[in-house]
Every structure is written in structure tokens, then in C-alpha cells.
């Protein structure tokens, strides 16, 4: 590795840690994207994963995605639970034969040496009922701690993956805490500097955790949210309906879709609004299932549209 | 004879699937070999997280030659038939065929010899099929090939295959086949981190040895032994004792190829959490073992972990890492436990209103109310204090809503007991939280405290009556609500506590409480429907009127009748279900199946303890000479009767006429029957079945003498009829204790 200044070393700074991962995956040929500009529960929701996992065209990408889990807020009082945290997401389609090795090398790149750490692949079947998606893989353990999810997508948005994409998700805060040796997420060194120049994770996010916990659990406007859910659902369906048209390409009466991405944005929106409503405790157990099914229906319809777009369809 | 070595090397196989997969591989390959005429000497399969391996030794080098005869057309048959025969058998002319005579004429017979093939070629055909059809519980596709249909599915990506075949003394051959682009060869790989290089192997012996040198222990049992022995050793060295856990050993041995056992510790302050919670936290989340102090039997602040590598720092980093993970886990558990202690169990109950037990059986809250009401009715029948029983029933499920049970469902009941004791409940009331779930199966402990017994019975009877009423009975192998287990639980609670208990009375009580729920539910179910109608018609007033009026609607009356019917039918059916469970239970304990039938066949047997006692007494009686002979006599009487009944197309019920007795033996038998009947009935009334059987024994000499001296089918039809009636009386008399016709032998 190039000689990095100390403050950029992954075991010294949170941002250095992220940069090391980005650099590693860039070297594997991934497109390094920036976070999607919408609120979402996990990096998997990013269209670069959900939609790009579909269709036959190769796709390799990596990006940081802020993940919002309104229910996990703890008013900044829990040492490792956050309602907003970062996931680092890698997607490679088709899954390369050496994906496990690449993953282990990525750990080495952020300072986890598999000669002295006990790295394990422990069964974990991944399923997202809201995305109509499932896959098989593992949770990756480092010395007994779950540090990543490793999944071979089999189905996304109700569509069989052909070819299969491999997905890696790193919980960045948790991994960085391990590498930096801190027990409280807010004590993470964010910029790798010391003394007066040092900025911690708490300096950046503690107040946000407190404010959003208050918002998520106590004040989020449920009347508005119910309405937003309804509107997002309606808009998604409207854009989907408007996007279909007969294919102009020669030799086919097949259909194509021209607005899968904007429609999918509304699906993301509905999903996040549902999570907020859930955190406010205004959705009963039985209603919960039906809301999840409604989001899934949107996701499936978007997946169907996507595989009829220029990027998503068979060549 | 040659041996086969097979290895399927993949990414990490889930621990829980490994043992069965090894077994499936051995079974599928050896079954197929035998089906191909290749009878082998022995086979053994192994699994590690990254490989399935199989060795089959002593396979014949070739299949045996097969000789078959095929019958062709008659001599002189049309040419078309002859040509067809030649074509089908591969003969060049009829000169090569034999001629065989039989009753229908002379036929051509072709002798077809099919030479056996080389076993290695057969194996090369078998293996790809087995790999493609391997029964993984869940399998997946991967990589570029998954773009096409028909690509290989495996539990996780399959990377390489070893398949060699050959004699011990020679260099073996590679079995030539490929599956989805993976060519079988003789290369494998060592431990993922400690020896990742390629290894070339020839046969099982060097395969296993080379793997061991490459830090892979192939045999799961060997890995388990290492884990258990080393863990015990580590604990012993500190004067401590490992809490053994076979399920955990099985799982952990499937997570490592090279087990390295180490000990870590956690802060002593966490020992204020109940031991079971510490164990569940460390075991479920971290797959580590806990350790106790043999002097106190209590857990200590140590745990045992199993790593997959020998680290150059002696494992210091790994132990420290695991300790860092366990600390916040225990800290969460402690927080959960302490949070739980702040809320009294009864204050949790209102939340059950929001939790549906079963769509058609209402909420958990309704269920708890039913159990409480039913337990109160059962309490006096089992000698339990009614008020304590009601309290226990009300609180028994409350721990389901606690944080600790939410996190560790297997601690349900136990936590309820701890929390009940902590809030000062009576010891019996607290114990019922844990005990009322029992017994969970044929070997689980049966509660004995009357309060626990009453709540356990009420819980199970409510479940059974409810699911029977909504027609969700177990069918075949499907029993999603574990209703057989619940019924067996009831049987064991009654029999093992020697409870005198009318099941029918208890079932009727459960029927009443269930009926109330069902009636209110059908009513409640209409509300949302009507609300929807109201929305659509914008006429809420009418909708509300319909809802209110439903109470007096005759339609609702008929609904109520339907509910009552379904419950009554359910109860009748349930009694038979209990009889079946008891039969299974008694048979498992060695009692004769037919004796249980003989007792149930009397009808009206809803007191399971009495059934058991009767069966026991009957079994003893039938072991004695008197019993055996009386059974033979009764059977003889029954046989004669059924023949004559068939002949005359009538039955011979009714009292015999004393005036028609001609012989002393008839009179003696009649007298004996009268005496035995009254003595046996009196004994049965006192539930003294041994005495009833002794009374029965008195019947034997009279029956024997009767068959010895008396000809039943007398020439005088009146005498004959009377004697048949007397035989019928024997049958009737024995029914005081059992239906002898159901007894075998």
C-alpha cells in the first residue's frame, strides 16, 4: 500500500477507513458511486443494487449509503445503536468466482489481518419482504462479531437474477469501532487528527441522533406520513402506467418502459415513510403485513418495468 | 478391489446441513452403485464447512455380465415379425436363435449377453446426476453461468471436485466427468487461512493425511472430540467445569476446519443476571460455551470459544475480540432483565389485546381469560387452590411480552417464574409460569404442583378444543400447532399424577369458554366489513344500525347454533383423539395395544387413569392360567355365537330360561355367570380392577366344564337357542372389565 499519512490510515480515521474501502473496490473495477439522494433503510434499496441486479448486463459498483432505521434510534444513549448509520455496499454481477477472496482482501485493506483474526462465514439467508428479494450467503464474523453481510442474490423485485449478483454490505461504524478499538460509536475518530483538530463521530452525529430519535418516536407527523405513503404509492403506479410503450426497436411487438427509475424513487419513498410510521407505533401487527405487501407490489412492478428498459433488458 | 474417493469443495456450507448432506451423499452414491450391480465393501462420508467427502472401498472393477433370454415369434411367423425380432435383439439371422417348445408351440429364443462395463465408467455416469439432484434444503445459483437456465444449483458456489478410482497398489485414475464446467480431478485446497494452497491427492488415505497436514480435520467427530476435550481441559485447569452442550458442539464443529479452543472472560457484575440468560446470550449469539463453579453449580465469568485458526499471537487478539463482543451483548441482556423487573407482570396484560393468537380464535388476551376460567374449574378436580390457580393462569403467559423472552424465546416460562418471584408472588403461582408449558414431549418432565397441573391442563385443553372447533386438526404428518403434543401432555399430566379426572367434564367446560370467544369473534369480524360498506355508501348510520341489530338477528342465532355444533362435534372427536394418544403412550411403555382397545371399546371411558388401571389389571389377569383359559373360553363362545348368528340371521340376546337347562354344567355355568357378574360389577364400582379380574377367574371352571360336557347345537331348537343365550351371557359378563373380543391370542 502507498505510504498514507497517519491521519488517513483506516485504523486511525473513519473517513480514511471509508476511503480505503472505496479505493480497494475501485481497483477491482467497480464504479464508485456516491450515496443515493433519498432516505432508505439499507444500501440494497439504492437503484444501483436493486434495479441493476436485474437483467443480463454486467455491473460492478461500490458506494457508501446512509441508512435510516427510525426504530433503532436511542436518543444517542446507546453505545452502538443508531437510527442513521453508514453502509458500504458492493455489488458485482455476475458474481466473480473469487468474491470471497476479494472480500477477505478488502478486510486486509482496512487493517483486519486474517492471520491473527478469526474470520468466519456463518450461514445467513437474506430476505427482504419489502423488496420481494432473497438470496443465500453468510454473515461474516470477525472474532465473533458480525461485520458484513455476504449474499448471492437469487431474486430481486420478484425477478429471478440471471446472472446472479454478489452483494457485500459492511456495517461501517461497527467495523471502524473494532479497528479503532473504541467501545462507543460516538468516540470514533472521524478525521484521524488529534488534539484540537480531532473531530469525533459524536461531534458530527450525536445531536442528529438525539433530534431524530425525538422526531421518529414522538413527533413525526403521522397524518402527513399516512398521506405521503398514499401519495407515493399512487405516484409510483401513475409513473409506471405512463412509462409503458410499444417497442420501437425493429422486429418486435415487445413493450418497453421509459420511467422505471422515477417510479422506483416513489417505492423507496413509500418504504421509508412506512418505517417512520412503524417507529411511531401507529401500525398494528396485521396492518404491518399489508403495508409491507403494498411496498413489495410497487417494487415488483418497478422490477418488471426495469427489465424492459434499455439498461435492464436482455441484449 | 478398487476404491472411490469423492470430494465436493465449495464455499462455506451451513453447519446445520453438513451431517445430513454427508449422509445423503453416501446413501445416494452407494444405492446407485448397488443398483448398477456394483456391490461395495464399505463406505464413509465426511463434512467440513467447505467440503463433502466420500470414500467407498471394495468396488468391483467391472459390472457382472448380464445374460438375458428374449422370446421371439413362433416358428413360421410372418417375416415382419421375424425381422423385428432380429432387429430388437441384434441377431444377424435366425440361426443364432435357440428354439424352445412350450404348450403353445415352438418359439425362437434369443440369448442376449450384455457384458458388464468398467466400474469407473459407470461411476462417471452416476456422479454428475447425483450432484445435479442433490437434496440440499436450500440451494442457489452463482456466477456467469447462472445467466442460463439449467445451470448447477448447490448449497453455496461449488469450486472443485475430486473423483479418483483405483486399486490401493496402483496410481488411481481420475473419474472423467464434469458438472456445469467443473472438471473432476485430484486437486483440493487446505485450510482457508493457514494452508490455502492446492493439494494433489490420490486416494482416501493420503487425502485425509494431506488435509490434516494442511490444517483441515476431515472427520466431524474428531473435531467434536477436540472441542469437548480441550474445553473441559481448559475449564478443569482453572478448577471449573464446562457446561456441556451437545447441540452447540454439533454446530461449532460445523463452523471450523481446525478447531482451536480458548477461554475468555467477562465482567463479574454480569453474574447478577440469571444463569440461563447469560448462557442464552453467550450460546445463541456467540456460539460459545459457559463454565460453572463445581462447588456452587453457578456460572462463573468465563466462556469458551472455538476459533478456526492458530494465530501467531497465541490467539490473544481473538480472545480480546470475542470479549469485546460479549460485553455489549451481556450489557444488553442485563439492561433487558433489569427493565423487565420494573414492570409488574399483570401490568403487561393489556398489551395482549393487540396480539392475535389465531385469526379464528381471537387475541391472546381472550385466550388468557379462557385459560383462567377453565383453570378455575379444573382446580378443585386436581386439588389445587382456586384463587392461586386463577392468579397463576392470569400471569403464566405475561413473560412473553418481556424483553428477555423477546430476545431469547427459549427462556419463556422460566423468566416468568423469576419475575413472579421478584414481585412477591406465591411460590406455586410463580412456578406455574414455567411448569404450565410442560410436558413438551414424551420424555419431558411432568409438573406435579396442583396449581401448575391445573394451569397446564387448562392451557392444553383450551388449545385442543379451540383448534378442533375451527377444524384445524392434525392430518398425517402435518401438525403445525403441535396438537398431538398437547394431547399427549394432557394424558401424561393425568396418568402420571394419578388424577381422577373426567375428561368429558373438562372438555365441556373448555367448550363453553371457546363458544363465547367464537360468538364474539364472528360478531367482531363483521365490523370492519360493515365499516367498509359504510365508507362506500357514505351512509354510516345504516351500517351502524346493522351492526347493533345483529345482536337480535335470527341469523346470529343460527350462527350460534353452528358454533355450538362445531364445538360439540369437536369434543366427541377429541375424546377419540385422547384415546389414540393414550394408546400410543401405553404401547411405548410396553402395554399391549389390543388390551387398550379392549377397554376403550367398552365406551364412555373418559377417565384416563381408570383406563390405565383396567389395562394393567387386564394384562396381569391374562398372564395367569385362569385368564388365558377364560379368554380361550370366551373366544370359543364368541366364535360359536357368530357362526350361529350368521346361520340363523339373528342374535341371541336376552336372558336364558332356567327351565330349559337339562345338564348340571349348564346350571353351574348360569349360576357362575350370575355370581361373577355381580361380584365383578361391585369390584368395578369400587374401581378395584384386580378384584374384578379375580371374580372373572371364577368363571373359568364353569366355562371349561360347559364346553367339555355340553353340546350347544342340541337337536331341540329351544334348548339350542337357550344354550346360545347362555353363551351370550358369558360374553356379556366379561364386558364388566373389557371387551374380550378385541383381545388377540
Largest interface: A-B, 39 and 48 residues
What fraction of residues of chain B sit in β-strands? 5-15%
Distance between the termini of chain B: 52 Å
The figure for the number of domains of chain A is 2
Instruction: Write down the CATH topology of the largest domain in chain A.
Output: BirA Bifunctional Protein, domain 2
Summed over residues and divided by their number, the pLDDT of chain A gives a mean of 94
Biggest beta-sheet profile of chain B: 7 strands, mixed
Rounded Rg of chain B: 37 Å
> What spatial form of chain A do the alpha-carbon principal axes imply?
globular
* Structural class assignment of chain A: alpha+beta
Give the count of structural domains of chain B.
5
Q: What is the general shape of chain B?
A: flat
Specify the CATH architecture of the largest domain in chain A: 2-Layer Sandwich
Helical content of chain A (DSSP H or I, runs of 4+): 25-40%
Number of strands of chain B: 18
Rg estimate of chain A, integer Å:
20 Å
Indicate the percent of residues in helices of chain B: 40-55%
Give an overview in words.
The complex is a heterodimer of chains A (315) and B (745). Chain A is of the alpha+beta class. Helix content of chain A is 38%, strand content 21%. Chain A contains eight helices and eleven strands. In chain A, the strands form two sheets. In chain A, strands 1, 2, 3, 4, 5, 6, 7, 8 and 9 form a nine-stranded mixed beta sheet that branches. In chain A, strands 10-11 form a two-stranded antiparallel ribbon. In chain A, strand 7 (145-156) and strand 8 form a beta hairpin. With 745 residues, chain B is an alpha+beta fold. In chain B, strands 1, 2, 3, 7, 8, 9 and 10 form a seven-stranded mixed beta sheet that branches. In chain B, strands 13-15-16-14 form a four-stranded antiparallel beta sheet, with helices on both faces. In chain B, a hairpin with an 8-residue loop joins strand 11 and strand 12 (198-200). In chain B, helix 14 packs across helix 15, helix 17 (503-537) runs antiparallel to helix 18 (540-549) and helix 17 (503-537) packs across helix 19.
Amino acid at each position: 500500500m502507498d505510504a498514507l499519512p497517519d491521519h488517513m490510515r483506516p485504523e486511525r480515521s473513519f473517513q480514511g477507513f471509508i476511503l480505503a474501502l472505496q479505493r480497494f473496490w475501485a481497483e477491482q473495477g467497480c464504479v464508485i458511486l456516491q450515496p443515493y439522494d433519498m432516505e432508505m433503510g439499507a444500501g440494497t434499496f439504492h437503484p444501483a443494487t436493486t434495479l441493476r441486479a436485474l437483467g443480463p448486463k454486467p455491473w460492478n459498483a461500490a458506494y457508501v449509503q446512509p441508512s435510516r432505521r427510525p426504530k433503532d434510534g436511542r436518543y444517542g444513549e446507546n453505545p452502538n445503536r443508531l437510527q442513521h448509520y453508514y453502509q458500504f455496499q458492493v455489488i458485482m454481477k455476475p458474481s466473480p468466482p473469487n468474491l470471497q477472496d476479494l472480500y477477505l482482501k478488502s478486510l486486509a485493506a482496512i487493517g483486519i489481518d486474517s492471520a491473527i483474526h478469526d474470520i468466519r462465514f456463518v450461514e445467513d439467508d437474506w430476505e427482504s419482504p419489502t423488496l420481494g428479494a432473497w438470496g443465500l450467503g453468510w454473515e461474516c464474523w470477525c472474532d465473533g462479531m458480525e461485520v458484513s453481510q455476504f449474499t448471492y442474490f437469487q431474486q430481486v423485485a420478484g425477478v429471478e437474477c440471471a446472472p446472479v449478483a454478489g452483494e457485500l454490505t459492511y456495517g461501517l461504524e461497527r467495523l471502524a469501532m473494532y479497528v479503532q478499538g473504541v467501545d462507543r460509536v460516538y468516540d470514533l475518530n472521524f478525521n484521524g487528527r488529534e488534539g484540537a483538530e480531532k473531530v469525533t463521530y459524536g461531534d458530527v452525529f450525536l445531536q442528529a441522533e438525539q433530534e431524530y430519535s425525538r422526531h421518529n418516536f414522538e413527533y413525526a407527523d403521522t397524518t402527513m406520513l399516512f398521506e405521503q405513503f398514499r401519495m407515493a404509492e399512487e405516484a409510483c403506479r401513475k409513473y409506471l402506467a405512463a412509462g409503458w410503450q410499444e417497442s420501437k426497436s425493429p422486429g418486435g411487438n415487445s413493450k418497453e418502459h421509459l420511467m422505471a427509475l422515477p417510479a422506483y424513487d416513489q417505492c423507496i419513498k413509500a418504504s421509508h415513510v412506512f418505517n417512520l410510521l412503524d417507529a411511531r407505533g401507529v401500525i398494528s401487527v396485521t396492518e404491518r403485513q399489508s403495508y409491507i405487501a403494498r411496498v413489495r407490489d410497487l417494487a415488483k412492478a418497478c422490477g418488471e418495468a426495469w427489465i424492459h428498459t434499455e439498461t435492464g433488458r436482455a441484449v | 478391489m478398487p476404491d472411490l474417493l469423492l470430494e465436493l469443495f465449495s464455499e462455506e456450507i451451513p453447519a446445520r446441513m453438513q451431517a445430513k448432506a454427508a449422509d445423503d451423499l453416501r446413501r445416494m452414491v452407494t444405492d446407485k452403485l448397488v443398483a448398477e450391480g456394483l456391490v461395495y465393501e464399505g463406505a464413509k462420508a465426511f463434512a467440513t464447512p467447505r467440503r463433502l467427502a466420500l470414500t467407498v472401498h471394495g468396488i468391483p472393477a467391472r459390472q457382472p455380465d448380464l445374460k438375458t433370454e428374449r422370446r421371439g415369434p413362433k416358428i413360421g411367423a410372418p417375416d415382419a415379425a421375424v425381422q423385428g425380432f432380429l432387429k430388437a435383439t441384434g441377431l444377424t439371422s435366425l440361426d443364432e436363435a435357440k428354439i424352445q417348445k412350450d404348450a403353445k408351440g415352438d418359439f425362437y429364443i434369443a440369448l442376449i449377453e450384455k457384458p458388464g462395463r468398467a466400474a469407473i465408467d459407470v461411476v462417471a455416469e452416476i456422479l454428475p446426476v447425483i450432484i445435479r439432484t442433490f437434496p440440499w434444503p436450500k440451494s442457489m445459483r452463482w456466477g456467469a453461468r447462472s445467466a442460463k437456465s439449467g445451470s448447477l444449483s448447490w448449497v453455496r458456489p461449488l469450486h472443485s471436485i475430486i473423483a479418483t478410482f483405483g486399486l490401493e497398489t496402483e496410481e488411481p485414475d481420475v473419474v472423467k466427468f464434469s458438472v456445469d464446467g467443473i472438471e473432476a480431478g485430484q486437486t483440493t485446497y487446505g485450510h482457508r487461512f493457514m494452508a490455502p494452497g492446492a493439494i494433489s491427492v490420490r486416494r482416501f488415505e493420503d487425502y485425509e493425511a494431506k488435509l490434516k497436514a494442511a490444517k483441515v480435520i476431515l472427520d466431524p467427530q474428531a473435531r467434536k472430540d477436540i472441542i469437548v476435550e480441550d474445553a473441559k481441559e481448559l475449564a478443569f485447569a482453572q478448577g471449573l467445569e464446562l457446561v456441556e452442550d451437545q447441540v452447540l458442539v454439533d454446530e461449532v464443529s460445523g463452523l471450523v476446519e481446525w478447531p482451536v479452543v480458548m477461554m475468555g472472560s467477562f465482567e463479574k457484575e454480569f453474574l447478577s443476571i440469571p444463569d440461563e440468560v447469560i448462557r442464552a446470550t453467550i450460546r445463541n449469539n456467540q456460539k460459545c460455551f459457559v463454565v460453572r463453579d463445581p462447588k456452587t453449580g453457578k456460572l462463573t465469568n468465563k466462556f469458551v470459544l472455538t476459533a478456526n485458526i492458530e494465530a501467531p499471537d497465541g490467539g490473544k487478539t481473538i480472545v480480546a475480540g470475542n470479549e469485546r463482543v460479549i460485553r455489549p451483548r451481556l450489557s444488553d441482556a442485563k439492561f433487558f432483565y433489569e427493565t423487565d423487573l420494573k414492570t409488574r407482570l399483570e401490568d403487561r396484560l393489556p398489551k395482549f389485546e393487540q396480539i392475535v393468537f389465531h385469526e379464528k380464535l381471537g387475541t391472546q388476551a381472550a385466550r388468557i381469560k379462557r385459560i383462567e376460567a377453565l383453570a378455575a374449574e379444573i382446580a378443585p378436580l386436581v386439588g389445587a387452590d382456586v384463587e392461586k390457580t386463577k392468579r397463576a393462569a392470569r400471569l403464566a403467559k405475561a413473560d412473553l411480552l418481556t424483553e428477555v423472552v423477546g430476545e431469547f424465546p427459549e427462556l419463556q416460562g422460566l423468566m416468568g417464574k423469576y419475575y413472579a418471584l421478584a414481585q412477591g408472588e406465591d411460590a406455586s403461582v410463580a412456578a406455574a409460569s414455567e411448569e404450565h408449558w410442560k410436558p413438551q414431549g414424551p420424555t419431558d418432565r411432568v409438573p406435579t404442583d396442583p396449581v401448575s397441573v391445573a394451569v397446564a391442563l387448562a392451557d392444553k385443553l383450551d388449545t385442543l378444543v379451540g383448534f378442533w372447533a375451527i377444524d384445524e386438526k392434525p392430518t398425517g404428518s402435518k401438525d403445525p400447532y403441535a396438537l398431538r403434543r398437547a394431547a399427549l401432555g394432557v394424558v401424561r399430566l393425568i396418568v402420571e399424577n394419578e388424577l381422577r379426572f373426567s375428561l368429558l367434564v373438562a372438555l365441556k367446560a373448555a367448550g363453553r369458554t371457546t363458544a363465547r370467544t367464537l360468538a364474539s369473534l364472528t360478531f367482531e369480524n363483521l365490523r370492519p366489513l360493515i365499516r367498509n360498506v359504510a365508507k362506500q355508501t357514505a351512509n354510516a348510520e345504516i351500517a351502524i344500525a346493522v351492526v347493533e341489530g345483529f345482536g337480535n338477528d335470527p341469523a346470529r342465532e343460527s350462527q350460534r347454533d353452528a358454533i355450538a355444533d362445531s364445538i360439540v362435534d369437536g369434543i366427541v372427536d377429541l375424546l377419540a383423539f385422547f384415546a389414540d394418544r393414550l394408546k400410543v403412550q401405553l404401547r411405548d411403555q410396553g402395554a399391549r395395544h389390543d388390551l387398550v382397545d379392549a377397554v376403550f371399546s367398552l365406551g364412555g371411558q373418559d377417565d384416563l387413569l381408570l383406563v390405565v388401571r383396567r389395562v394393567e389389571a387386564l394384562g396381569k389377569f391374562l398372564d395367569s392360567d385362569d385368564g388365558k383359559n377364560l379368554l380361550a373360553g370366551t373366544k370359543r363362545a364368541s366364535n360359536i355365537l357368530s357362526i350361529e348368528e350368521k346361520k340363523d340371521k339373528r342374535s341371541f340376546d336376552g336372558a336364558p330360561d332356567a327351565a330349559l337347562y337339562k345338564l348340571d354344567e349348564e346350571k353351574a355355568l348360569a349360576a357362575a355367570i350370575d355370581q361373577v357378574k355381580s361380584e365383578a360389577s361391585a369390584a368395578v364400582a369400587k374401581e378395584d380392577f384386580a378384584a374384578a379380574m379375580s371374580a372373572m377367574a371364577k368363571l373359568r371352571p364353569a366355562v371349561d366344564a360347559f364346553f367339555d360336557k355340553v353340546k350347544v347345537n342340541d337337536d331341540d331348537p329351544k334348548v339350542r337357542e337357550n344354550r346360545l343365550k347362555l353363551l351370550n351371557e358369558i360374553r356379556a359378563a366379561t364386558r364388566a372389565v373389557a371387551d374380550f373380543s378385541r383381545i388377540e391370542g
